[in-house]
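Hi W., the S-adenosylmethionine complex you wanted:
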Amino acid sequence: MTGQLYLVSLPIGNLEDITLRAIKTLREVNMIVAEDTRNTRRVLERYHIKTPFSRSYYQGVERKRAEPILSLLKEGKDLALVSDAGTPLISDPGYPLVRATIEAGIPVIPIPGPTAAIAALVASGLPTDHFAFDGTVPCKEGERRAYLEAIREEQRTIILYESPHRLLTTLKEIAKVLPERRVVLARELTKIYEEFLRGSASEILQTLDARSEIKGECVLLIEGEKGLARKTEPHNVKEAVSLLKKEGISNRTAMKILMCCLDLPRNEAYRLIHAD
Ligand code: SAM
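Structure:
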């Protein structure tokens, strides 16, 4: 019998953000495959977990180390893959290992928990019904500009991981390319100095300008292009609703039409259909 590979999410700052199942799994597996054992040790000590580490698994050795880890799984060892913070594989190592494990027919089991992207999104105040996580913003000036130009038409909320050193440069670029968009900076999530700054990129820049330095981990969110829903004149939408009713279309189908064809959010479609 082979072992199983568990993908265990760890806290993104506050050590209490760990699930009971994550603690149980980390205690019960034969070995923990960590990105950096020094960082993971803090969590293990906090929860008195004594499971040994296998060799570290970090960016740069991902392909090379996948094979020996796979051998352990084939020998029947249960392993937990963890990254320094949050969910493994989300801007963190693990993808080649997961692919290889699946291809070998060995079970891969997620143990869900914190991830900075989702924590930032849900408290951002930006639409959460459709979103895209784009990882980190390209570092090179030309590539960064091209990326921002490319997302001009994107209707989903964009989530980006950004370093505090590049934050001002990126915000300045967003202010030039997407000046009207609502932007949210989520900083130091779950930690003592957790902060959300909301506004246009220029407004956030103004707030940050007053500070001597910007520290901590950051998630940047950019509102999507408003799209058809808000471009559609309200009286046209009302006309569409009354036509659907006249034709005897059921409320359920009318909702679907408004959501799919006019891109209205579910609650807005519901409100319009149930209005007198
Ligand atoms: N695997 C992690 C996750 O699930 O969110 C992400 C790891 S990635 C290497 C690190 C980046 O995630 C940071 O540079 C920052 O952009 C974001 N991040 C991680 N923890 C954060 C926190 N507590 N507050 C804000 N951003 C955070």
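The pocket of S-adenosylmethionine is lined by residues 12-13, 83, 85-87, 90-92, 115-117, 161-163, 186, 188-191, 217-219 (CB under 6 Å).

W.
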